[in-house]
TrEMBL record:
Pfam family, one: 4HBT_2
Source organism of the structure: Zhongshania marina
Keywords: Hydrolase
Record lineage: Bacteria, Pseudomonadati, Pseudomonadota, Gammaproteobacteria, Cellvibrionales
Transmembrane stretches, start-end: none
Domain of life: Bacteria
Protein name: Acyl-CoA thioesterase
Record bears the keyword Electron transport: no
Gene3D superfamilies: Hotdog Thioesterase
Length: 128
């Protein structure tokens, strides 16, 4: 499992005074950074090889500026060409959001899926 802490910025608040719902998917993507390293060490954009197929977010409670948010990420499933990440966001000990992201190992040059290698599978399974 991966863990990271996000510090909500004032600019991420909305007119209702809480963190805008568009921010959480970005936090979850940030939390996937170490997973991207498994597929593309150094995260060279010219060699990018992972694409988002689907994501969802359940907003459980409001998130506020001024209190850090802890994000946990785990790999829930590894298929032949894709994998599923599960995320949770916690603020002050309370689950405030959770979601999943389906990621595909992808060759952008030929626009097709790639088979996840044994080495990549081992890296992903360490995060389950």
């Amino acid at each position: 499992m991966l863990r990271c802490t996000m510090e909500p910025r004032f600019c991420e608040t909305d007119a209702l005074g809480h963190i805008n719902n568009t921010v959480v998917p970005m936090w979850f993507e940030t939390a996937r950074g170490p997973i991207f390293e498994i597929f593309n060490p150094g995260q060279d954009l010219a060699k990018w090889n992972v694409i988002l197929r689907k994501m969802d977010v359940d907003f459980i409670a409001q998130i506020y500026h001024g209190h850090s948010v802890d994000i946990t990420t785990r790999i829930a499933h590894v298929g032949s060409t894709s994998f599923i990440c599960e995320h949770e966001a916690w603020q002050r000990g309370e689950l405030v959001a959770k979601g999943t992201a389906v990621m595909i190992y992808f060759d952008f040059a030929v626009q097709r899926k790639l088979e996840i290698t044994a080495e990549q599978r081992v890296g992903l399974e360490k995060l389950s």
